[in-house]
């Protein structure tokens, strides 16, 4: 048990140090909502670009507008995105920055799992800290097994 958690015994635990069952279930639901490649791309684009319409998102990710709209509906119901009507178009944006950060962190973790020297750790000169062992490639059974 880490020292910080030991110090919390008998006091109200922080969200970071002690996660109760209900909170863990809720957090898992967030990951489940984002566990779709199309939704990951939508959240990443909205995080980077701010507001985009269904048509703009569809064009950027190469999916049909109806498919993008279905994913946006799920994200809207979960209070991840919000729409702003402008004429006949709805402009979507992230309600908060947290989903974009989760996606960004997940993509950085993929770099750790698939690259010996993750791009986000490289300096301007291209140098990076050495890693203990090479990670399996995305297509390797070991990679998929590690995600299961």
UniProtKB/TrEMBL annotation:
Q: Which UniProt keywords apply?
A: DNA-binding, Transcription, Transcription regulation
Please tell me whether the keyword Ion transport is annotated for this protein.
Answer: no
What the entry lists under PROSITE patterns is as follows: HTH_ARSR_2 (PS50987)
Which InterPro entries does the record cross-reference, listed alphabetically?
A: ArsR-like_HTH, HTH_ArsR_DNA-bd_dom, Metal_resp_trans_reg, WH-like_DNA-bd_sf, WH_DNA-bd_sf
Q: What ranges does the record list as Low complexity composition bias?
A: 124-136
Q: Which NCBIfam families does the record associate with it?
A: HTH_metalloreg
Instruction: Please identify the protein, giving its name as recorded.
Output: ArsR/SmtB family transcription factor
Domain of life, per lineage: Bacteria
* Disordered as annotated region, ranges: 113-136
Residue ranges of the HTH arsR-type domain? 19-114
